[in-house]
What does this fold into?
Amino acid sequence: MPLYEYECDSCMESYNTDIDNLVAKLTKTNARKVFKQNRNFCYIEVTSDKNGKQFFELGERGISGARRFRYKLDNGKVLYLELKNFRFDHLVYGDDDDQDEIKCPLCDDPGSVRRVFSTFKAIFDDKSKRAPGPGDELRWHLEYKQQKDEEIASDWVGQDHLNQYFNR
It folds into this structure.
């Protein structure tokens, strides 16, 4: 039973267009209009870049499971957003036929869902199947280097081996 992660392209596109509309006209009335149109926005806040003074806020801050984004804009303002997560996971039982029926939990559109690289699998995968990362212990780095050196040494083709094919 593998666990796969998916993203919804239609949700991402709607987020991108709404964020573009919001940045183009950054007022409270426009933000309220965008907030009402797209129910997947959890929180919108606009503050000053220099002193941190809040211009306006909409919605409830700190909802669990939300994706948080902070944009520093050219006009000296900072836009802080909390959005419902367009990335979700799904447990697949048995056949791969179940993957065709997966729907986005936000928009219920099965056509715009695509499978992405799973960070969950990368974290909990067996160490022998992946290269060491920055957070791994030093011993694993050394063992991995030794393992790769042994693989290179076993794959090395020497001159004696080549001479049997190319007689000179």
Notes: The chain has a mean pLDDT of 78.
